[in-house]
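Many introductory courses stop at the sequence. We go one step further.
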Amino acid sequence: MDYDLQLSHVYKTYDNGTPAVIDFNLDVEKGEFIAFLGPSGCGKSTTLRMISGFETVTKGDLNMRGQRMNNVLPERRPTSMIFQNYALFPHMDVRQNVRFGLDVKKMPRAEADRKVDGILEKLGLGEIANLPTARLSGGQRQRIALARSLVVEPDILLLDEPLGALDANLRKSIQNELKLLQRDLGITFVFVTHAQSEALALSDRTIVMNAGRVEQISPPRELYTQPRSQFVARFIGSNTIIPGTVRATEGSKVTLDTAYGPLSGTDRLGAGITEGRDMSIVLPAEAVDIVPADVDAAQIATEFGGNSIACKIERLQIVGHIMKMVVRLENGEKIDVEGHVDKYRDRLAVDGSAHVVWRSAAATVIDQ
C-alpha cells in the first residue's frame, strides 16, 4: 500500500551532535488529518520541516505516495505549507497572493485565474480579492494563506501552528472551517500545534512528542482516555496518577497495592504484566465519580469494585448545568472533578467527607 506520507526510522541530528528527532515512524493514509502535539523543543516543527524539505533528514526514509523524498527540493514535493506568520506579500493584493504559486509553476493565465476564482469563492474571499493584504484582519489573512496553499492542489498540506496569532473566538471559528474544508477536499493535512484542544478537536490521529521521540500515536479519544506513558498521562487532559505495585491480574484487570490500599485499572497494551511490577493507575477526570461518605461500603464495592479513596470536598461551583468540584485526597493531593449538577446538588457540601470512586474499565494501568 502506498501511503500519502511515510516516515521510517527518521532521525534529525544537528551538526553539533544534538538530536532533534529520534527514530520517528509514521504511516499516513490519504485524506487523514494528523496533528503533532508536544511542548516547545520536542521536535514537532523540525519533523514538519523535514517533511516539507526545509530540513534535511539525517537518517531514515521519508516517502510520499511511494516515492523517496529525502533529497527532493521543497518546490518539487507534492506539498504546500502554511506558516504561523502566513508569509503573505504585502505589495500584492489578495488575488495576486493566491495566484503566486501557479505563476511560479508557469500555469497559463486563464487556467490560473479559473483556479484562483474557485478557491476564493470556496473560502469566501471573492469580495476582497482586489484589496491589499495589509488592510485585512487576521482571520482574512489566514484564509488567504490557506487559499494560496490549496490552489496549487497539493497531495499534502502542512500547517505550522497557523492559528497561533488569532484570538480565541476567531481561532475556534477557523478550526471549524478548517476541518470541514479538509473533509470536503479530501487532502491529507499535517498540523503542528502546542494547543491540546486544537489537536484533539481537529485530528483523526494525534502524535504526542517529547524530547525528540514519539510517545504515542492515537485517535484523540483514545489518547485522552488511554495514555500509554507517564508523559502522555501528565501532558494530556486532567488525569490523576496513582502509583503502586502489581498485586494480581485477572484478564485485562490489574490490581495494584497503593498508598490507599488495593485499587485496580485496565491493561490496554497486553504487555504481560507480572506481580511485583511497579505501575500506575491513570484516572481521567471523566472516569472519576464522587459519592457522599454515608454511602454503604458494600454498595461501593459492588458498583465500583472497591476502587474508593476517602476525600474532603474543597470547593463546589455550579457553571450552567455543570458542577465543578475540587476534592482533597488523604495525602493532600487535589483532584478536579466535573459532573452534571442534578447528580451532585444537595448530596455534597464544602468541607464534607466523600469518596473518589471509579470503575476499573475506565482507568488505565501504565508503567511507572
